[in-house]
């Protein structure tokens, strides 16, 4: 049976269509969901996409974290459903307390867009199982509020428990603590990161590689990892 992965659109979402396309390319069925609904339409996994939900008023992701559908997202995450938050979606996950810490304005106070090198730190989550620990990947990054912060106690726990999923390599683009680009919850079903894997899923449209310009497809493994996790759970 084909996995069905929902993508939630909020007012101001920009990358919901790209996330749906990435899911389709990975071999699953994308399902469009609406922020004002309480219906997850029977999906097997969820993606909270990038953008500027509610204009980033108050704090990025703060209002979206209170949207009606987030009640269902929290319940589903608590039951073990795979949930991926990308950029603004990551901001929603921390604001909804599904992941620890917070995200603030980039240290240089400017919007940044670059193809960013990352190191995979945790390859045992629902969204990273097709990577290897220590693997270097390149994923597009575009944000203004991507600086990851948390208390010293929380940082020690995140590092000690292996909850850092991805770390920036080469340059820390936004001043995140410990070069953290993405984290996971202890169960491994909820993952959030600032870079955009949905923009690196098809040759000709991704980051440059040594093989060819725009040929990078490192982002595809996020979505195939989720499909594999769902298949394993169903077996």
Q: Cα distance, first to last residue?
A: 11 Å
Order of helices and strands: EHEEHEHEEEEHEEEH
Query: Beta-strand level of the residues, as a percent range?
Result: 15-25%
Strand order of the largest sheet: 2-1-3-4-11-10-9-6-7
Profile the largest sheet. Answer: 9 strands, mixed
Mean pLDDT: 96
Number of strands: 11
Classify the helix fraction into a percent range: 10-25%
Which outline best applies?
globular
Number of helices: 5
Helix/strand class: alpha/beta
Low-pLDDT runs of 5+ residues are none
Radius of gyration, CA atoms, in whole angstroms: 16 Å
Features:
single chain; alpha/beta; two-stranded antiparallel sheet; 23% helix; EC 3.5.1.2
Task: Describe the structure concisely.
Helices cover 23% and strands 24% of the residues. With 235 residues, the protein is an alpha/beta fold.
Task: Outline the structure in words.
There is one protein chain. This protein is α/β, with parallel strands linked by helices. Helix content is 23%, strand content 24%. It is built from five helices and eleven strands; from the N terminus they run βαββαβαββββαβββα. The chain has helices at 16-26, 69-78, 88-95, 152-160, 220-234; strands spanning 4-9, 29-34, 45-48, 83-86, 102-104, 112-120, 136-143, 147-149, 164-168, 180-184, 190-193. The strands form two sheets. A nine-stranded mixed β-sheet has the order 2-1-3-4-11-10-9-6-7, sandwiched between helices. The chain has a two-stranded antiparallel ribbon with strand order 5-8. α1 packs across α5. 54% of the residues are buried. The mean pLDDT is 96. Its main location: cytoplasm. This is Phosphoribosylformylglycinamidine synthase subunit PurQ. Pathway: Purine metabolism; IMP biosynthesis via de novo pathway; 5-amino-1-(5-phospho-D-ribosyl)imidazole from N(2)-formyl-N(1)-(5-phospho-D-ribosyl)glycinamide: step 1/2. Its EC number is 6.3.5.3, 3.5.1.2. It holds the Pfam family GATase_5.
